[in-house]
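Chapter summary example.
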Amino acid sequence: MKLATEIRWQDRQFKIPVERVRQTEHWGYDAIFTAEASGSDALTPLGYLAAITNRMKLGTCITQVTTRPPTVTAQAFQTIDHMSGGNRVMIGLGSSGPHSAEG
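The structure predicted for these 103 residues follows.
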């Protein structure tokens, strides 16, 4: 069994709970996930999480494929993976809803 947690992305004031993240890594959690929706992206907090964790996998619940070119998405994930020491990034892709895709 693998354990994971996520960062709430629905709040209007996006905050990363640094102490909770550090504790979950200390307790042996395997991964932490971010997501994106209107108003926040998944990649910026993932880069921040790479800086404050050491071994947990870093993933996105969903990264919208309709809002950025595929090469930009791949390049961003590759950069985060390099910054985190390699072999830590997991990519979740999706199309999101009409409000994001059509906007």
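To summarize the output: DSSP finds four helices and five strands in the chain.
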